[in-house]
């Protein structure tokens, strides 16, 4: 583990504990803020187009020089209850800088006010409006689950690939192996995740494959690249997902970073995040 990852992980544990020590959905919702705006630094050096689709903001960012025409839809995490965070914009900027891709960022409605059915209806419209190929869908955490859900629903459609950071592939958090990782995870709380997943599910069962994509057959999907920290309670399910996808004949690569925490790519100053983005650039530019 790098020193910067160790120091960042300690700061996360001390100051963030994402869903608070109260371990309730209500406590997390009380701390909810609106989505972070795109940083001025990105506006100064990239072309930014903003529109409203089905009542939700959608931001498309293109490099002012070196644009390749490759398209990426980036879906942010936050357990379906939190909006865009500054770390998400850092991830988007890193993808653009490394690939020259145009990245579209949909700001979907959050639970409990909005549910999975509304979310996918909105995202389907965003995909339909995205021009240019090749097209990748990327996301972190809950956003990675949404990326998988879109790929599953568009199985007959050609996507260049999926880029998944710390994917949340089972909203029920029922894998007993999670307990072994929990003491080392500085961020996530299973009880709140289960409640957030149930709120997002609305009238659906949280085991539904659009909420817990590990329950799909995982056959016939585009190539999948997963970047996962080992100090993240999503690791056991990410490993289980990758193995199931391979058995189904899907091309999947899982890269695990020892001692990296959940969504470590948001800490772009760490060697682990830099390595992940180099590998993402290789995947996207090869597509």
TrEMBL record:
The keyword Hydrolase applies. Residues 72-265 form the Alpha/beta hydrolase fold-3 domain. It comes from the Bacteria. InterPro entries: AB_hydrolase_3 (IPR013094), AB_hydrolase_fold (IPR029058), GDXG_lipolytic_enzyme (IPR050300), Lipase_GDXG_put_SER_AS (IPR033140). Belongs to the 'GDXG' lipolytic enzyme family. Its EC number is 3.1.1.83. The lineage of its organism: Bacteria, Bacillati, Actinomycetota, Actinomycetes, Micrococcales. This is Monoterpene epsilon-lactone hydrolase. The keyword Cell membrane does not apply. Transmembrane segments: none annotated. GO terms for molecular function: hydrolase activity. The active site is at 141. Keywords: Hydrolase.
């Amino acid at each position: 583990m790098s020193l910067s990852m160790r120091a960042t992980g300690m700061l996360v544990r001390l100051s963030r504990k994402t869903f608070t020590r109260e371990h309730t959905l209500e406590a997390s919702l009380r701390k909810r803020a609106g989505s972070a705006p795109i940083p001025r630094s990105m506006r100064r050096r990239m072309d930014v187009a903003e529109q409203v689709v089905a009542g939700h903001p959608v931001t498309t960012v293109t490099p002012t020089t070196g644009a390749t025409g490759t398209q990426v839809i980036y879906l942010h995490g936050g357990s379906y209850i939190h909006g865009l965070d500054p770390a998400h914009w850092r991830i988007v900027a890193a993808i653009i800088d490394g690939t020259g891709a145009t990245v579209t960022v949909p700001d979907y409605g959050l639970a409990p006010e909005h549910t999975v059915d509304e979310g996918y209806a909105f995202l389907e419209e965003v995909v339909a409006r995205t021009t240019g190929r090749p097209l990748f869908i990327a996301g972190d955490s809950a956003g990675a689950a949404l990326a998988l859900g879109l790929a599953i629903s568009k199985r007959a459609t050609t996507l260049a690939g999926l880029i998944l950071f710390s994917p949340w592939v089972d909203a029920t958090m029922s894998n007993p192996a999670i307990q072994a990782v929990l003491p080392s995870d500085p961020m996530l709380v299973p009880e709140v995740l289960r409640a957030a997943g149930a709120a997002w599910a609305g009238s659906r069962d949280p085991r539904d494959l659009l909420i817990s994509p590990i329950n799909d057959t995982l056959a016939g999907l585009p190539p999948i690249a997963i970047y996962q920290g080992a100090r993240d309670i999503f690791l056991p399910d990410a490993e289980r997902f990758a193995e199931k996808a391979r058995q189904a004949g899907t091309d999947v690569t899982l890269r695990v970073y020892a001692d990296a925490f959940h969504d470590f790519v948001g800490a772009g100053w760490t060697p682990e995040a830099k390595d992940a983005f180099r590998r993402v650039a290789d995947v996207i530019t090869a597509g």
